[in-house]
């Protein structure tokens, strides 16, 4: 069976980077000043940070429907019999639904995985799915493996300015009410339990306390050498390095990396955000 593996720019990589490994990535969209920019094509992470520094009001949306349709029609014409897709989660975007509809309209079977997050986990799962399929695994085995990772995945977000999240509508009503409480430093989370929506995990009084509590939450999740930890920041590399130093002391056997936060999340969290995403890797 000929299978196409499809994702989107929620992984934070360009389409060319993913195509080099035989994976198709469709661009999400970022709207600013009346223009619709194709994420990781028309605008990279540094360019997005520049717009945030200019205090530009931005919004995000799913890939252009016509582009999804054109992509899937081309895949069908090339003899693809099944699409395996790992898009940005349904709690943040309508991409999964749009892909399902586009595939149904042309009679092309599709399997979609809702990661309930985005970024590193999203990329890990689409790459894992492709590798497993090439090794002869069944679709059922691949889906079960993906779910195994999703079950251990969590993302903690430490925003500097709640107004970005509130304006973008990416917070639940409870979380949005915190926007005006300037003395409160919330720890936000997005995972399977929040159904892929950003919600408040806890509220503390200082940023230092937020960092300490985030580390404690990770300890409670029993992170060990089988996990992968990613620190993603929005124009705050020094703080990210400080956080990484704390995590390396706390979890000395665990793989830890620092990246820039993916554009479609950074738009809503704003500058100086720190996010920590972690999951248990497959054996």
From TrEMBL:
Enumerate the InterPro entries for this protein.
DegV, DegV_C, DegV_domain_contain
> Which of UniProt's keywords are assigned here?
Lipid-binding
Provide any one GO MF term from the record. Answer: lipid binding
Claim: Transport is one of the keywords in the record: no
Q: Report the NCBIfam families cross-referenced here.
A: DegV (TIGR00762)
What protein is this chain from? DegV family protein
Q: Which organism is it from?
A: Holdemania filiformis
